[in-house]
Amino acid sequence: MTDSRSHWDSAYNAKGETGVSWYQSGPSRSLELIKAAAPMRGTPIIDVGAGASRLADDLLVAGYSDLTLLDVSEVALSRTRDRIGGAANKVAWIVADVTKWKPTRTWWIWHDRAVFHFLTDRAAQDAYIATLRQATVPGATVILSTFALTGPEKCSGLPVQRYSADSLADRLGPDFALDTKDTEQHQTPFGTSQDFIYAGFRRR
Ligand SMILES: C[S@@+](CC[C@H](N)C(=O)[O-])C[C@H]1O[C@@H](n2cnc3c(N)ncnc32)[C@H](O)[C@@H]1O
Questions:
Q1: Which of 13, 139, 149, 179 has the most CB atoms at less than 10 Å from its CB?
Q2: Class of 2-203 per CATH?
């Protein structure tokens, strides 16, 4: 975990929360998809590779009460912890590499924006998918957002694997039924745009 952790800790230390290319002032697409899949505010939700995203703030404001944030970077999570202040004790915090982490419970919503696409190695992808299976139950919703086939080839200096919703479905395998597919042109803080996909799956 150390190499990956130090890469991401350095990225957040160097650029801050709002200077990274993936920064969103309001992660509206993720919020919409989660709200559609989880009308009950007690639904267990995990944001994998949550970084310093404001999704947590928005989910807490919306009233979600069972929220877990996981990231390999302690620096990223501490930004969110500091930002949300007193609400921090309503969140479960996990500093871990998702490809090595052993979940001890399950969630009904698994959300990942711009994390799975960093796994360019098939073994690491398989490890992620095995963890995803362990951490969810049949009927759970899995929302994955990656760079689209027309998106950048790198992010944060690292190569990425780009996907369509269908190629992502192929990679996840038959245990995950593709329910929704969507695209987004993300506007970076530097005035460039990046093509993302959002794919929603139902765990079989
Ligand atoms: C491009 S950022 C996206 C952050 C957040 N999801 C968002 O949309 O703002 C990728 C995040 O994944 C985290 N990350 C990268 N590899 C990871 C891994 N193997 N396990 C857990 N987190 C990881 C990084 O620390 C970083 O916060």
A1: 179
A2: alpha beta
- 44 neighbors 66 (Cβ within 8 angstroms): yes
Encoding tokens for residue 2? 């150390």
Contacts of residue 110, Cβ cutoff 8 Å, sequence gap at least 6 = 46, 48, 132, 135, 136, 140, 141, 142, 143
For the entire predicted model, the pTM comes to 0.98
Question: What gap in Å lies between CA 105 and CA 29, rounded to an integer?
Answer: 26
Which whole-number Å values give the CA distances from 7 to 81, 114, 125, 150, in the listed order? 20, 15, 19, 25
Q: Using only C-alpha atoms, what is the Rg of the chain?
A: 16
Q: Look at ligand 1, atom 14, and give the residue with the nearest C-alpha.
A: 49
Kindly report, residue by residue over 46-78, the tens digit of the pLDDT: 999 999 999 999 999 999 999 999 999 999 999
Contacts of 17 (CB under 8 A, 6+ apart): 23, 52, 79, 83
Neighbours of 24 (CB within 10 A): 18
Percent of the residues in the chain that have a pLDDT greater than 90, as a whole number: 98
CA of 114 to the centre of ligand 1 (A): 7
Q: Which residues line ligand 1 (CB under 6 A)?
A: 4, 8, 22, 49-51, 53, 71-73, 76, 97-99, 113-115, 118, 155
The token pair that represents 137 in the structure block: 């139950």
Give the Cα separation of 18 and 86 in Å (integer).
21
**Amino acid letter, residue 24:** Q
